[in-house]
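Lab notebook page, bench 4
Experiment: in silico fold of construct C2
Operator: M.H.
Input chain length: 253 residues
Purpose: comparison with the prior construct
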Amino acid sequence: MSEFLRLLAQTYYTIPVMVGFQFAAGIISFRNRHKFPELRSFYLYPLIGILQTIISLSSMIFLDQTISDRIEQFSVNIFSISEATLFLLLSVRVLIIRKSKTVIKVLYIGFIVYTIYLIFFTDEIFHNSSRVICAESSVILTATYFYLFEIFSVQTSEKITDHPAFWINIGFLFVFSCTLPITTLDFFRRTVSFYYLYYVNFITYSILYLLIIRAYLCNVYIGHQEETWTQPQMLRENSNKQLSKVESKDWIL
């Protein structure tokens, strides 16, 4: 309990704020899980986040610090793997350029191989979540770059704010851009505690869950109910010539 109270004070009581948005996102995403085909699996994300929060906080409150630390780090690592999996699955569904999809798939395979190595050949999965999170951050930031590159490279009269994937990508870009420096410090200076900076994590994740709520409350495109209301639809409505220009850029090479 003392460790939990210390963490609560050091993070300026931002944990309850994040948990509130987390539960709200979980409820809204679950109720709207069939609204957008491209998000048909993503509703699991806030639910997994809620489970991880319950496990971490419960271990801090009811168990001694040594066991609690191991459980907390393990739950954070499992959450990070699930987080990367669900987000990259969404990315593959909404990206249209084949090279982008290929790069994302290769990066994800590399990420999974790396985490398997940590699980079976080291003890880091129970001690140092920054090793998994640093790799995850690199992969997710690359995917958000590909998405934003595509969506802003195509001329369209449609509002990008009506695309749920837009809000989710902005949320993940914000989270990992803000937290990657802290995670990097954790990675290279393991003997120093950065608990006093963890409030940044909780604030950014609060904003992410708020943006997830916004994504699930996007307007449905009534004119094409049978189609996926995502970025691929937007790209399909543009000329093949314009899409070819996007694919021919050498940013991916």
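Observations: Residues 221-232 have pLDDT under 50 and may be disordered. The domain at 2-252 is CATH 1.20.1070 (Rhopdopsin 7-helix transmembrane proteins).
Next step: discuss at group meeting.
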